[in-house]
Each structure stands twice: as structure tokens, then as C-alpha cells.
From TrEMBL:
Protein name (database record): Pilus assembly protein PilY
Signal peptide: 1-22
InterPro entries in UniProt: B-propeller_PilY1, ConA-like_dom_sf
Regions that span the bilayer: none
Record's keyword terms, sorted: Calcium, Metal-binding, Signal
Amino acid sequence: MAWHPSALRPVALCIAALWPLAANTQLVISDTLTGATSAYLWRSLGGACLTAGTYASGSTRIPGCNGHPSYSGTVQVGGVAGRLPDPVGQGALRLTNGDTVRDGRNSADQTGSVVSDFTFPSSQGLQVTFTSVTYGGNGYGGTTTTPGPGADGLAFFLMDGSRPASDGEGAYGGSLGYSCSNNKYNADGVRGGYIGLGIDEFGNFSNPDDTSASGPGFRPRSIVLRGGGSITWGWLNASYSAYYPSWLSADERSEAVRNTCKSGKLWDYDRRSWWGGRLAPAETTQPVLTYPHIARSDLPSTQPIANQQVVSLPTRGNAIPITYSLKITQNGRLSLSYSYNGGAPTPVLTDQAITASNGPLPSTFRFGFSASTGGGSNVHEITCFKAEQMATSSSSAGVNAQQASRVQAGTQVYLAYYHATNNWGQLTANSLLYDSTTDSISLATTANWDAHCVLTGGTCQATGGTTVTAQGPSSRALLTWNGTQGIPFQWTNLTTAQRTALTAGDATATSSRLSYLRGDRSQEITASGTGTFRTRTGVLGDIQNASPTWVGPPTTNYPDTWRDRLTGTQGVEANYSTFQSTYATRPHVVYAGSNDGWLHGFRAGANDAAGNFSTATTANDGREVLGYMPAQVLNTIHSTTASLSYASPSYIDNAYVDATPGTGEIFYKGAWRTWLVGGLGGGGNATGQIASRTATGTGTIYALDVTNPANFSEANAASLVIGEWTSANLTCANVATGCGNNLGNTYGTPIIRRLHNGEWALIFGNGRNSANGVAGIFVVTFNATSGAPTVRFLSTGYGPSRDPQGASGKNGIAFVSSADLDGDRITDYIYAGDVFGYVWRFDLTSSTASDWAARSTPVFSTGGLPITTRVNVSSALSTTGAPRVILNLGTGQVFPQTATAGATHASGTQYLFGVWDADMTRWNDIGTTARYAALTGATAYPTVAASELVTQTITAVSGTNGEVNGYRAVSRAAVCWRGSTVCGSEAASNNHMGWRMALPGTNEQVVFNPVMFNSLMVVNTLIPAVDQPLSCTTTASAGFTMAVQADTGAAPATSFFNALVPSSVAVPTNTGIGGVGLNGTGSPSFVTTKGRTVLVQQNNRGTGTAVEVTPSASGKGKRVNWIRLR
């Protein structure tokens, strides 16, 4: 059976987290350290012990803290309850004890360390992750008002596995048990040390006056990486006996180690005069490796390493976890990052060659942890340790947050990925394949192209290892906005203010950072340390919440002649069919926003004259044909705060173009055009992403003319960029001053619609966290002749004073949906949900724009549950009378990950809803061709409350299927519509205004847009990953794909997922399978070919999936009366 590409349209998916590609994991060591004994053999020294265990003399594993002789006569503070021991399963590896008294001596001058009695091969490289907590100290160095740093710190190190574990004990104090010391009597460092990572509270691990021969000096609150060394008396004597003779006294041996450590050169301690007399020792010219300082990251004062100083009951749960990730590839390239309190990874070092300075990788490693205290003390604990092999090319694999993604239809599926470590992304095009043997559709596992490879070059894993030549900066068409028009993204074209923004804090203003943003890599930091800017893994930045959007030939079902059925007027629009014919074979372009600051456009083939997919005239290779950087991004992508500056080596993470763009046809200046319109999501904020309900953000909406990709060039910038509307520049026809204060972070996707005043409009929600904090929508109309824009803000009036949490939080609207009630393709109403949980209707039925307004009261209230996704609008034929307008929605909200905290989600039980908008009396009075059900005799329509809805329930059902992680039976309770006789003739028996359904999973919610499939509401729910930074156990995010009747919330008569439900699944009476655990992310899409309907989406592992569904369940046949109101 032949495969017909024309049967499908492109499918775009975007992932929900950072997904690893081609990881080659072979050996994994994971020790939770939470029990009474360790899982692996470790050699313990000093006070190292397990807080949930009891000391046993002679144990070959880490001993317990309870009864440990190192803590005799002291109080063991901290742990779960403030005092040890901990319950088994809730413990940690403790290296030193703490204190509860300022400058107390409960744990002064302590050391503790563990070294693995097992070794780990280096031939495949390795990745190590662990989490540390530091708390409960004596406040040394501080005052009653200013916390001190407390103790010295702790270290993790790798040492040569050929050396015994007993060699893994370095000097105490500022050397943190790893390096040698310049001023301690016991000055030996770790013998065979290769890498030492110091979590330096007090500041001496970087100090050459205290530790080793190199470093920038005293640096408290820092993460420091030191190189290798073997500076011990034993090694010096064995390796250079002529300089370090065995007959030296103990004091001389100590001095010899200290001098060698401090100078970084060998010393001659056997100097003789010509007559044989002994001379004073002297420094030679021969250098020696003394744990050289490699890199450092200073934590700001707002991010302390240690907390709970001088606290009577310090607890681990109130400590600040810091998780470290150290990677060394098999060819000796090292990367180090850390995550503070669950926040985004902060790079310390990225892909730096270390063999030149440290020597070749030893064949095996041992692992070690150590800590020390002096006059200052802190509890130092490790809560998780994991080591695994990795290939040179492996990418990171931690899950941070789920993303919204929009799925569209095609011959290819576009999968977007982001990698948190070093903030890079991928966008792949994978074919949809038809198997005639199984009569099924699947996704190709090998990509046709990967935009990461196109812009970066080299061996492309996604395409099966092909070699790709990078698209150079000079061959890219890159544009921006200068405040009045589109311009080339070239130094000479920028305004003075834009140049200043890109060079703030630089000694000299040059175009180098602009070149970096264009993709030039010549000034990235090299392995030898030269260069200025952050070394990128790839030129394409991370794609987090901006789904790919495919634009092919014009396909909207618009007529050649327009007539307004409300006003009876003839429109100026004409010849849409000619426009369709002209551009039927234009190149397909996939647009994706990225947090490298660009909206990218990548070519993806075209249709031929017969409508079949073809590469005869346009290659399907992912070459970038257009890039656009909004002006607000240009102004914020560089910052004098290094962690927020994209090109800085200290860059952590920020959002720039982080929202999904929309596309549509518009009649503009007397001609049909195709526009691409979008926002920035949480991007564009000078201080980073906002994870607060009260902070103020700023937003941008941009519009590009993408009608003809053949015109994409920098020379055409002025005609390609229609405009930008920002918080700073918005002026509104109906708001006297400060209209821009109503625009916040623009998370939603704008829509393009025709309105009753005869003009076309760009319509979008006002976003989250605006300065005014009031919910509303913006309507930007364009003069039919001149194209001049006019902006109006339609406010709901619901702002901080109506915060359901009583905390003066900011309200806002992300997504908008349009309703064309009479089918003339002219929008009558806009529906939208706000952060406070209200559903609004905006009346645009008038031909006079000044009459447009929000309904005086909300249509519906969730009772304070946030709505951050789209409200779907449809109509359902009643058994008697006119059809009802039904609004479907879900509740939930994500607050993004920041540098200091992980992503968080709305708390409490969240719901799916279906609500009848019965306020149709006025519409029925003015509408000439369509009538909708309204409450009989009603003169006012108060806000519908959740209590007025029938409750549908979800029941978990057991069953097995390789593609499904659980089944859900959904009830079929009758909706007794108010004013009807559905449930009898008595009015009291018919009082429902719709339905509701509680989501039963832990913190389960809706953060992806629901879609309509015939009569069904189909939505992917999210059960967020459990944040357990103090545990090795990670719980991945999950979710269910729900498909229920949109008007009643009931399970359909035949399950939509019938093909996925085995016969062994027992479904309770009067229920049906209405949900399956597919762990899908984003909005699902549907592809129909060869009589099969397939749901296409991406799962929580980043894999594109295609599963068969049963379309007859959605009302095909009996329920053909459903209309999607656009």
C-alpha cells in the first residue's frame, strides 16, 4: 500500500523537559546514604558517619553516627528533627557535626572523610552528581545581625584508582581534606588526586596563602575546582629522594611538604657544600603539580551556602540543598555545574580540556568526600551520590519542568528539545511512516534534519551520524526592530540605545557580542582559556515553552466575497482563492522561538502543484531562512549581571523568545498576506523569569509578514517586520495614559481575526504580572487601506483587589479564543480565562469599535483555581431547542524555574470543566441566522459557580498495555440542564449549568491547551515531578490523556482509546474509559489516513508517539451536530 504524503500535514511538538539523546550508560553507582549502612564499601576517616546508623567498630562500610567515638562528649545536632539519630531511610552521610551556640566548641577542629573502597573505570568517561547541605553552625565570623560563614567547607574529589583508599586524606582547614596545606603541620594532600571540588564557606580553598600555590585569594561563599596533585611526604620521598631524603626529621618533612605546596616547585633538602656540609634547603626551578586552581564561581550574598547558624534545633529539611554535576568525557573534557535549591544549573566550567594540565585520565578513579571545621563549625552532609559512565557526546538528563506545546498536522513531526546544561536546544524533523503490513502510522526514529546541527555543524547524531557543514553567520537573514521599523541585525543598523544595551559594562563598545549572537564562535572561550564569551554546545539555544509552528500553503477556508451577517455589509476582501493558488507551492517553514534570543524559521520542503510534498524546488534540510530578535530581547539579552547575560561564561538561564507563535491570513493594505504573530512568554524581563504572583513583568507582541519566504532577506527587513507592541510603547485609543502598564508577560498565542467594523485584528491576552495587574485583552485593528494600527484594551476590571488568595496578586489572561456564532467568519465574541479563575466573554458584535467591552461579570468562576490555558468554545445540539454554547477548560499554573528555586505548580485539587454560556438573549435578538440556548425568562445572568455543575468522577482501573501507564474510568452522570426537562418535569430537578471533574493525581493539573476533536474535549494533564533535592530518588512527571464528552464530561459510549484498552480491563458499571496514562506533553494532534485516526504527541521522555484512537467515540455519526466555534 503506497504512502501518500498529501494525506497529512506537518505535526509540530515541543518537549517538556531536557531530553538526553544517545546516552551510553553502562555502569551506574548509586548510594542514597539514607540508611543505617551504605550500599557500597567506603573507607571512613575522622567523624564521617551515617546519621541513621549506629557505630560498629571494624565495619567495612561507613559507620553510624550514633555512638561514634569522634562525637563523644558532644551533641549531635541537625538531621530530621534537630538531633540525631535519624530514622532509617531519612538519613545522610555526615562529615562534620555542628553547633547551636555562637562561637561554640561543640564541633570545632573536626575532620571527616570517606573514600571509596571500589574503583570506577574512566574509559567511557563519567558523570557524577551529588547533593550537599551545610547548616547548623556556630556563626563564626558573624554577628547577632549578620550570619557568619561558619566552618571551612567540604570537598568532593576524584583520585587515581591505582592508589589505595588510605591515600585519600588531604590537609584539614582551608584545604578541605583534598589539597596540601601551606601552613598546617599535617600538610599532606591527597596522593593521586585528580580533581577536587571545594564547597568553600570560609574562603581559603582559593587562597594561595593557605592552600597550594595558585588561586585568586580569599574567596568566601564560592564553588572552587582544583586540579591534581600528590603532594605528600611519601610521594616526594619516593619520587625525588635526592631532594627529599628519608633521614629528614618529622619537622623537616612537614616543612618540606609545606614549602613545596606553597611554591609549586620542588625543594632540595639535601644540599651540600663542596666539602660535604649540609646547606639550607632551597627552591629548585622544577615545577610540580600542586592541585592548581582551575575555576571558581562566587555565590552572591543572597545565596548562602550555609544557613541556620546558632539555632537550637537546626534541621536538614530547612537547609539549602546544592546539587552538583561533574562530567569528564573519555577524551578528558570537563564540565561542572551546580543547582542551588533546585534552581537552574549554574555553570562553573564547560567542556574544558584538563589532560594538558592534569595529565591523562587514570584508568580508574576512586571517589572521596571530605570536610573540616576550625574555630567555625557547620554540619556538612551529603544526601545523595551517583556516578555513571557516559560517552563523549552524551547530554544531560535531568527533568526540570513541563512545557506547553502545540501540535499541528503533516508529513513530518517537529520535535523540540532543551538541554539545561549549557542551555542548548534541538529541533528535529522526523517523518511520519505508514506500514501497509500493520496498517499503522509511526514516527521515524532517525531525523531528516536537526536545526542544532544545521547551525552548529559537525557530526549529527539525530540524523544517524551524518556530517553537516554549519550555516555561517553571514548566510543568515537576521532581523530586529528599532522602534519604528524592521532593520537588519547588523551593528551599523542598530540605534545608539541598542548598541549601548549590547555593550553595557564593556570597556569598549564593539560589535563582538552582536557577532556572537549571530552565531560567530571565534570569540568563545577556548580550551586554553583565551576568548571572551561563553562556550556554547551549539548555536541553537534551548527551546523550552515555544512550540514549533509550521507554515505551508494558505489553507484557511475563506471566501472570495465577504458579507457580515449581523450588519449586512459587504467586505473589501476579495480573491482569496487566487491568493491560495499563488502561494500553493511556497516553501514550508517551521518557526520556533528559542532562548538564544531568536525566533528561527527553518525550511522544510514544499508542496508541488498537485499538493504533494516535494523537495524538487525547496530542500527539506532545516536550513534557517529567517531569524527575528524582538527589540525587548535585544535590550535584555546582555546584562551587567553575569548570570543573566547570555554570552557570559557565568550565564545560568533566562527566557527570551519563549512563547509559541501563531499564524494566519489577513487582508492588509488591500491584499491577502500571511502573518506570524507571537509573544515572549516569560522572556524579556531584565531581572530574569518571574516566579511570583506579585512581581511586575513586561511583554512584547511582534508581527511578521511571512507570505513569501523567497523575500526573506536582511534587505527586506522593513517590509517583513509589521511591528512590535510592548509594555513601554503601547498607546490605546480607549485608555488615556499608561495603557502599556496593562501588558505583562505574554505567554499566550495571539490570534488574527476579522471584526464587525470591517477591519482585521490581532487579538491577545494581556499576559501575567502586568504593572496594573488587571485581566483583559488587547485588540489591535488595522486600517483596511493604510494598514495603520489602532490598539484598544478591553479590561475586566478584576485586578489585585480581587485576588482570591487575598494576597494582592496580579491577575492576567494568557490565551484567547474566538467565537463566530453565525458562520460568516467574522468574530462575535472572545472568550478567555484569567489567573484568578474567572472565565470572561468580550463582546465584539458591534460595528463601532468603541462599543467593544467585557461582560460586566464573569461567565464562570472556578472558585479561585487558576486558568492559564485556552478556553475551548463549541456548540452542542440540545435534545430539545437551540444548541448550547459550551466552554471547556482546565485549571492549573506553572511558575518557572529560576536560579534559586525549581519550578512550582498551583496547589490543591484542580479540575476540568464544561460550562454552558446561557447569556445568549441579546445574541438571539441581533443574530439573523443562528440562535443559541438561553435561560428562559432570564433578565440577568450571574456568574456560574462550580457548585452549579454536576460532578463527573474518575476511578483508577488496573490493566496492562506497553504503551499505557494506567487507565481511568470516567462516570456518566446526567447533566440536568437548568430550564430543561432532562431529569424530569420539576424545575428543582434540573439545575445544572454544566459539569466538573476533579483531577485525582498528586498536584495534577492542566498546563497544556485542551483541544476539541468532534464532540470530545481532549487534554493532557500534568502530574508534576516530585521535587526531592535531598534524595537520590527521583519521581518523573507523568500525566493522563483525557477524552470526555465536551457538553457533559461523561465518558463516550465507546472509548476514544478503545484500541489501547485490553479486554482484561474491568470497567465499573455506568462508566467508560475516558483517560489513559500516555504521559503526553503539550496539545495532542490527530492524523487520519488509510481509515486510521492516530493521536500524535510527545511524551515525558521526549519521544514522539503515535497511537491509534477510535474516532466513532467522538460522536461521528450520531453526534455530527457539533460545531467548533472559531
